Amino acid sequence: MKIRHLLLTAGVACCLLSCGTSSDNGKDSEMNRFISELMDKMTLKEKLGQLNLPSGGDMITGNVQNSPLAEAIRKEEIGGFFNVLGVEKIRELQRVAVEETRLKIPLIVGNDVIHGYKTIFPIPLAMSCSWDTAAVARAASIAAKEASADGICWTFSPMVDVARDARWGRIAEGNGEDPYLGAQLTRAYVKGYQGDNLQKSDSSVMACVKHFAFYGASESGRDYNIADMSRIRMYNEFMEPYRAAVEAGAGSVMSSFNTVDGVPATANKWLLTDLLRKEWGFDGLLVTDYNSIGEMNTHGVAPLKEASARALNAGTDMDMVSYGFLNTLEESLKEGKVTEARIDEACRRVLEMKYKLGLFDDPYKYCKPERARNELFTDENRSEARRIAAETFVLLKNEGGTLPLKREGRIALIGPMGDARNNMCGMWSATCDPERHVTPLDGLRSAAGDQAEIVYAKGSNIYYDERTEKGAVGTRPLQRGDNKALLEEALRVARGADVIVAALGEAADMSGESASRTDIRIPDAQRDLLKALKETGKPIVLLLFTGRPLDLTWEEDNLPAILNVWFAGSETGDAVADMLFGKTVPSGKLSTTFPRSVGQVPIYYSQVNTGRPDPNPDEFNRYQSNYLDERNDGLYPFGYGLSYTTFEYGEMSLNQTTMPKGGSLKVTVPLKNTGEYDGAEIVQLYIHDRYADIARPVKELKGFQRVFLKKGESRDVTFTLTAEDLKYYNSELTYGYDPGEFEVMIGPNSRDVQKKTFNAD
Ligand code: NOJ
Fold first, then answer.
1. What gap in Å lies between CA 34 and CA 54, rounded to an integer?
2. Distance between CA atoms of residues 70 and 61, nearest Å
């Protein structure tokens, strides 16, 4: 056992970082003075109103002025709202707030702007496969610009829950399985949404990091389920992205639906106050998830009144939708169950958020109809979305250079996603206008021009069973056809073609909230379609649509090429055509392991060695940690992705064999583009702590670089490691590192790495 260095408790470690959204002291004191003066004038009822966040449900039709929402505003019963779309409506509701109420306090207007507003970017899981923080920040800033042009000033994004269970549909909304990659991307989202000067800019929005915390560990991959884990695991494996968001200045945090240590996160004082506020110094707004105070009743923890008091006392500031704060806290105050000081604190945080958004300077700052007319779904935004989409595609297989396709002959596009316009954007894209989107069929036809003929057949339904399909397509129905007739047509079209592009997989609503699956293969009807297409003997490119890692064992064994395009947003069709024809070159790498079967999940690369690691993956080894009927490793490892070009890694070198105390170590690897295309490679660096206080992962990502090389070009890629990269939380939750032996690994993915060792003083 080594002697630990830099003994810092978790709390001290984090408070040394600059946390929260605090601007400089001068500005803070101006804000504090302003809010104190305002709060001096407020009645208890007005304060409680500020804590209430209802959903408009976008049900306001006709006269906004007489809507229930407008009535609630007049009665000073709300601090903001969400789910109302359209700048004119929002402007009118804001007008009611600032003209028809006693204190004229403006409202905050939220929405789930998850991966774009009108210009839709790839789903977050796809975005994370770009490993491109600049692209993520750019996409978030465009989303912010469009949303803010249409009345919205607060997005319930980024979702940063580390997720390792492909059954869980919400894996689609996050950054994958790794806390380090997740934290880097989280910072980029926060920066992109909030910009440099939220108060002055009208094109930025407040970020809301969610779901705090550990929602990604929902047991059995079933949504809203409990998430139960040790503190060690919380700190070392799940916490970092949330903490990174706070450090980056995220203005708000949303608590999660799940229980943490048995207590719903919404009312978990350790989580919300001790950790988030005190340890991390978060000084922004803490909002619940949708009706999660109300759901504490169903959880069997407390009926609404008690649940509201517990949530407030735990540190919650704003109640999304359950109306518990509005309707019960006054009574709880009289009974001494809550304090006025805590109500004041919560109210202050809501008002601070409005101040930070500049709403007290100009309540109509985000309500400029001319911006909504000119700044949504612009050519410029769309071309950015198309460019970024290409970075998120992951080439999983490409035997014999099947891809890129030549622009010649007859290409058969077959499969239910080939022309499914309303499905291109994936989950959480309620604000999009699908009729303006480009499908693979449109994209391929316009890219092929008159050089190649593109023929299309739907080929199959999503599922054979109509009821299963109904659940799967949810709000984006697809026209169903007769299973047999669809297959016959597809085979006829396929037989007359030179190559088949099979566009299939999951429908958009098969991932996201409330979309868990126990079978993570391509659905039955489409699997059979693929098998039948294979019988034609034509080369097949699987153009895979999915919101989660799938079990692609059959596809890997039987098809020459697999390009995973996830759900790529409004520009899917053109982005897909660009890549299929080689105008763009794949560079995406998986941010989550693709398992060989659902039985392996949860699966992730950074596992801890057991005392009996599997000595030989090719056979069963009794009394070793393995399965009777399956290997341990995934089909495609974390960090994996091919390109049309090839990269050669030279031998890595260290500038010294010991990292001196307080110093650093440089790790260099020569990289050469040895293929026929210019392209980008994501070089990954992992470490392993050989002996530590607790068993440590066999590999942990600690650095990555996206390197663009022209064909034939070479470059040395250098990483600098410091003690920060070696630290973790030990059995006493002390943050530090153990001097001694470490391994450092570099490679194109988490599996194919080269290794060297060094010592840390
Ligand atoms: C529930 C979801 O869990 C959360 O992510 C979302 O932001 C809210 N609903 C509001 O729509």
1. 26
2. 12
Tell me the average pLDDT of the chain: 95
Confidence of residue 25 (pLDDT cuts 50, 70, 90): low
Q: Which residues contact 479 (CB under 8 A, 6 or more apart)?
A: none
Question: What was the pLDDT predicted at 62?
Answer: 59
Catalytic residue among 165, 178, 202, 289: 289
Give the nearest ligand 1 atom to 156 CA.
7
161 in contact with ligand 1, CB cutoff 6 A: no
Q: 716 C-alpha to center of ligand 1: Å?
A: 44
* Whole-angstrom distance, CA of residue 752 vs CA of residue 638: 11
Q: 6 pLDDT band (50/70/90 cuts)? A: very low
Residue nearest ligand 1's atom 10 by CA: 290
Known catalytic residue at 482: no
Pocket probe mutation, ligand 1, options 173, 254, 292, max atoms within 8 Å of Cβ: 254
H-only helix segments in 41-82: 44-50, 68-74
- Minimum CA distance residue for ligand 1 atom 9: 290
CA dist 177 and 158 (Å) reads 15
Q: Is the pLDDT of residue 257 over 80?
A: yes
- Nearest Cα residue to 148 out of 87, 197, 189: 87
Euclidean distance between CA atoms 349 and 108, whole angstroms: 12
Query: Could you identify the atom of ligand 1 that is nearest to the CA of residue 159?
Result: 5
Phi-psi region of 76 (alpha: psi -120 to 50; beta: other; left: phi over 0): left
- C-alpha closest to that of 512 among 552, 472, 460: 472
Q: Whose CA is nearest to atom 4 of ligand 1?
A: 289
By alpha-carbon position, which residue is closest to atom 7 of ligand 1? 156
Backbone angles phi, psi at 659, to 5 degrees: -90, 110
Residues in the chain: 761
Q: From CA 120, how far away is CA 425, in angstroms rounded? A: 7
* 696 touches 688 (CB < 8 A): yes
Burial call 505-533: b when 16+ CB within 10 Å, e when fewer: bbbbbbbbbebbbeebbbbbbbebbbebb
The CA distances from residue 384 to 119, 133, 573, 706, in Å, are 9, 14, 14, 18
Q: Is the CB of residue 210 below 6 angstroms from any atom belonging to ligand 1?
A: yes
Position 26 scores a pLDDT of 74
Is 513 close to ligand 1, i.e. is its CB under 6 Å away? yes
pLDDT, tens digit (0-9, with 9 covering 90-100), for 94-152: 999 999 999 999 999 999 999 999 999 999 999 999 999 999 999 999 999 999 999 99
CA of 256 to the centre of ligand 1 (A): 9
pTM summary value: 0.96
Rg (C-alpha) for the chain, rounded Å, is 26
